[in-house]
Amino acid sequence: MGFAGRQRGMTAIGWMLLIALILGMALVALKLVPIYLTGMSVSSAVGSLEEDAASVGKTQREIRKTLMKRLDVNMIDEVTAEDILIARTGNAIEVEVEYEQREHIVGNLDVVVSFHSSARIPVGQ
Q1: Which of 13, 15, 55, 78 is the most buried (most CB within 10 A)?
Q2: In terms of residue numbers, what domain contains 51?
């Protein structure tokens, strides 16, 4: 009975499992943070189209070209022209960017993250 009362702390196996868990979580975080930063940059580029007065009255081709230039300046290669959907709806042009990014973690384990950003640009009168 006195022996059980003297035991304190974790065993070596417990420490190894805890360290492995922390390293695994750090690995996933190191892989996911750049993906989400890229996603925020894409969302910012799409949102800036909505706020930019120069976007009003542009054709769909000009809007796509402007957006691709902004993504290129930010060195975003994950979004291609096929990921950008531009359609006229009523008195506005809807711009949607929808893409997925895959990142290899370890072994046969991958992470797939999906992003969707949209903006509404009024049509110039």
Answers
A1: 55
A2: 35-122
55, 61, 67, 71 alpha-carbon torsion, rounded to 10°: -160
- pLDDT tens digits, residue range 15-37? 999 999 999 999 999 999 999 99
What pTM, to 2 d.p., does this model score?
Answer: 0.79
Domain presence at residue 20: no
Per-residue DSSP letters for 53-114? Answer: GGGTT--HHHHHHHHHHHHHHTT--S--GGGEEEEEETTEEEEEEEEEEEEEEETTEEEEEE
- In the sheet that 109-122 helps form, which strands lie side by side, from edge to edge? 84-89, 92-106, 109-122
What domain count does the chain have?
A: 1
Q: How far is CA 76 from CA 18, 43, 48, 84, 113, in A?
A: 36, 12, 15, 13, 15
